[in-house]
UniProtKB/TrEMBL annotation:
Family note: Belongs to the acyl-CoA oxidase family.
Enzyme class: oxidoreductase
Boundaries of every Acyl-CoA dehydrogenase/oxidase N-terminal domain copy: 158-262
Residues annotated as domain Acyl-CoA oxidase C-alpha1: 412-563
Protein's name in the database: acyl-CoA oxidase
One Pfam match: Acyl-CoA_dh_N
A biological-process GO annotation: fatty acid beta-oxidation using acyl-CoA oxidase
Enzyme Commission code(s) on record: 1.3.3.6
Protein's cellular compartments: Peroxisome
Lineage, highest ranks first: Bacteria, Pseudomonadati, Bacteroidota, Flavobacteriia, Flavobacteriales
Cofactors named for this entry: FAD
Annotated keywords: FAD, Fatty acid metabolism, Flavoprotein, Lipid metabolism, Oxidoreductase, Peroxisome
Chain ranges of the Acyl-CoA oxidase C-terminal domain: 611-753
Keyword Transferase on entry: no
Length: 755
């Protein structure tokens, strides 16, 4: 063992040298940082030469030299104080200046290295066999400021709402009996309505403030209380009320919207059928106009053509029923009609049959049911006629002549529901992550054998990877959905087609992410996560269905991919591929280039953390999948393969394209948002979260990028290492990040999050 005595100027660098070589992640950029500090320091030529000789990756220090460094550190008698501003700098200075007390010592060159290499105590505390004064969290970032960034322009509404949720009526409790659970949720919905929260997206004349983004924020925050309440709230005010608002006209608004927002008129949204879920155009329920009575007759043609899984079905008085509208013997396609299903005394209207769906995996506070109609007659005026109407002479009219375009325009007005579902999923992930992180900050497990106290599980790299990575994703998805709800609110009918494509990809991507994250949190909490009292179990069961309702994720990804293929410019509703061939064949082929080896093999830290690299990587993924999908379509079409069979042949390809597009879109929106942050401190942490999101997704698809020669094996390895390193760099701030979600204390009711 090399036990030579080093000069104090050499000694102060030894802890840093030991950390970077033990870390085994010394890139060119990190070497340049180290060399810059050494070069500019007041060292003798011999001292500079010696330190520089230890910074060559091709001829690293001998094992016995590194071991001698550890021996010097361990025998120093210096305490590592993590609460100091620059703990490794202070520790190193105390080593080089023996006899100094507990005061924090500083050195600008060492601070330069510590800052620019992002060295955190959890990178090296296990390397040093010294007394350590640990701190479970850092206070560098103010959670309230982070929360303010996330709340954005509707902060005042969110803050008031969170305080409102402290009412004892919203206190979470274990509920396993649907017959007591459902009435409680109904009363909670009515309480929210009485305070004006249900009507927030409606115009002021109907009791609202005409603020859809604020309503969506309220919806997300409801997940901190209960999933059933969130969905019941969404069905009443978003689906039923939203259908009247978006598909009806002023006469419908005047008749029903105010009462809906007040919760005095309960309604449901009857679209899905037992035999037809995702394929709304194929539903079998009919709405036949009868000229003699100037009415519309709603009928369920077969026993299995009933409306299925309809939320609020057991409590509703009215239903928005989607049916094939038949006028003068001609089927005009799917339209929405408001149908009364119960009288004022709560009795079913003659011809209406409703059955309880019974117990589900989750959301048992929501009264889902099946509905059949047997020649139920409603006035002609009950047709929600924004896009299609029957005049007083019994003739059908519409300003959109193309039935397919009319259908998709109609559904496009309901995309806000998909955004809210995705926001609800993010809310569920936030609560699960906050619970799991707070548990990990006091739960200890295992030690090195000599330590009296076991280590916090949050300090294990594997635990950081499983929790901090989804925290970064949660931030990206929150910002993305805030952007999308604003875009949706301000969009014209023509631009909503593009937004529908974007939201289809995002809803699928984010709800799938939320399910996986909540499961990861359950496992990260061990047996405690399995206890109902800690809420992760209910979150897991409640959010599970988010991947299915408001559009099955598999179907939505294909919808998004088809939107990408047509470049948002031509309709894809007819299963015709002609427009795709024209666009893709000429626009994408020339954008795929041979990659520069200096790019594919670049493992430099600055490059790997560069947002431009991340965005170009995601864009390439989408471009390449688009090009190859279009090429396959062209080959099949030339062979005369029917369009439907072509879709089946490339279905898995479309799914991959839809996912890639969602990832690219999310990062594109998030990186643009980060540039708008004026607070440099906030911008720094958000940029780091974005880098973790990007590198995680690139790593997740490393096999694909390797197959296409976009990255080298060395770069793939460096990306994996950087993901792990970013997690450890964010570890000291993990409490600030989950507190930055803004979950009120009265909603953090899991015992493991407080004990």
């Amino acid at each position: 063992m090399d036990t030579r005595t080093y000069s104090p100027h050499i000694v102060k660098y030894i802890p840093f040298l030991y950390v970077v070589w033990a870390d085994d992640l010394l890139s060119a950029s990190e070497i340049s940082v180290f060399k810059k500090a050494v070069t500019e320091d007041h060292l003798s030529p011999e001292e500079k030469k010696l330190i520089t000789s230890w910074l060559n990756p091709k001829t690293p220090p001998a094992d016995e030299v590194i071991t001698s460094w550890k021996h010097l550190i361990d025998k120093s008698g210096v305490k590592l104080v993590e609460s100091e501003t620059y703990p490794l700098t202070s520790f190193s200075m105390k080593m080089s200046l023996p006899g100094h007390g507990e005061e924090e010592l500083s050195d600008e060159k060492l601070k330069f290295i510590e800052i620019n290499l992002g060295i955190q105590p959890n990178h090296y505390r296990h390397l040093f066999d010294v007394e350590t004064q640990q701190v479970p969290k850092a206070n560098f970032y103010d959670p309230a400021k982070i929360d303010a960034v996330l709340k954005g322009p509707h902060a005042s509404y969110i803050d008031t709402f969170r305080e409102f949720l402290s009412d004892p009526a919203f206190q979470w409790k274990i509920s396993r009996d649907k017959d007591t659970f459902r009435p409680r949720v109904l009363e909670q919905v009515k309480l929210l309505a009485s305070a004006g929260y249900g009507a927030m997206a409606y115009e002021s004349r109907y009791g609202g403030i005409d603020n859809m983004p604020a309503y969506a924020g309220i919806f997300e925050n409801l997940m901190f209380i209960d999933g059933s309440l969130t969905i019941k709230f969404g069905v009443q005010f978003g689906l039923f009320g939203g259908s009247i608002q978006n598909l009806g006209t002023k006469k419908h608004h005047d008749q029903w919207l105010k009462a809906t927002g007040e919760g005095t008129l309960l309604g449901c949204f009857a679209m899905t059928e037992t035999r037809h879920g995702s394929n709304v155009r194929g539903i079998k329920t009919t709405a036949t106009y009868v000229r003699e009575t100037d009415s519309i007759v709603i009928d369920t043609p077969g026993e299995n053509d009933n409306k299925e899984y309809i939320g609020n079905a057991l409590h509703s008085t009215m239903a928005t029923v989607f049916a094939q509208l038949i006028v003068n013997g001609t089927n005009q396609g799917v339209h929405a009609i408001v149908v009364r299903v119960r009288d004022d005394d709560g009795n079913l209207i003659p011809g209406v049959r409703i059955e309880d769906n019974g117990y589900k995996l989750g959301l048992n506070g929501v009264d889902n049911g099946k509905i059949w109609f047997k020649n139920v007659s409603v006035p002609r005026e009950n047709l929600l006629n924004r896009f299609g109407d029957i005049d007083k002479d019994g003739n059908y009219t519409s300003r959109i002549s193309n039935p397919n375009k009319r259908f998709f325009t109609m559904l496009g007005t309901l995309v806000g529901g998909r955004i809210c579902v995705a926001k609800g999923a993010v809310g569920g992930a936030k609560l699960a992550l906050a619970t799991a992180v707070k548990y990990a900050l006091h739960r200890r497990q295992f030690n090195s054998g000599e330590k009296i106290q076991e280590d916090l599980i949050m300090d294990y790299p594997s635990h950081q990877l499983r929790l901090i990575t989804p925290i970064a994703q949660t931030y990206v998805y929150h910002v993305t959905l805030e952007h999308m709800i604003r875009q949706y609110t301000d969009a014209s009918e023509t631009s909503r087609r593009k937004i529908e494509t974007q939201v289809a990809a995002l809803k699928a991507l984010i709800t799938d992410f939320s399910n996986k994250t909540i499961q990861e949190c359950r496992e990260a909490c061990g047996g405690k996560g399995y206890l109902l009292e800690n809420r992760i179990g209910d979150l897991k069961n409640d959010v599970d269905i988010f991947t299915t309702f408001e559009g099955d994720n598999t179907v939505l990804l294909q919808l998004a991919a088809k939107g990408v293929l047509t470049d948002f410019k031509s309709e894809f509703n007819s299963d015709s591929y002609g427009d795709i061939l024209k666009l893709v064949g000429t626009q994408l082929g020339d954008r795929l280039t041979t990659f520069n080896p200096l790019f594919t093999g670049n493992t430099d830290k600055e490059h790997l953390f560069d947002p431009d690299f991340h965005l170009e990587t995601f864009q390439y993924h989408v471009r390449r999948l688009t090009f190859t999908a279009a090429s396959r379509i062209r080959r099949y079409v030339k062979k005369g393969i029917p369009p439907q069979q072509v879709s089946l042949n490339i279905q898995t390809h479309l799914l991959a394209l839809g996912r890639a597009y969602g990832v690219m879109l999310s990062y594109e929106i998030f990186s643009g948002f980060v540039k708008t942050l004026e607070d440099e401190k906030m911008q720094f942490i958000f940029r780091k979260l974005g880098a973790l999101y990007a590198l995680h997704h690139i790593r997740e698809h490393a096999a694909w990028y390797l197959e296409h020669g976009y990255i080298s094996g060395a770069k793939s390895k460096a990306i994996r290492q950087r993901v792990e390193r970013l997690c450890t760099e964010l570890r000291p701030h993990v409490v600030s990040l989950v507190d930055g979600f803004g979950i009120p204390e009265h909603c953090m009711t899991a015992p493991i999050s407080t004990n």
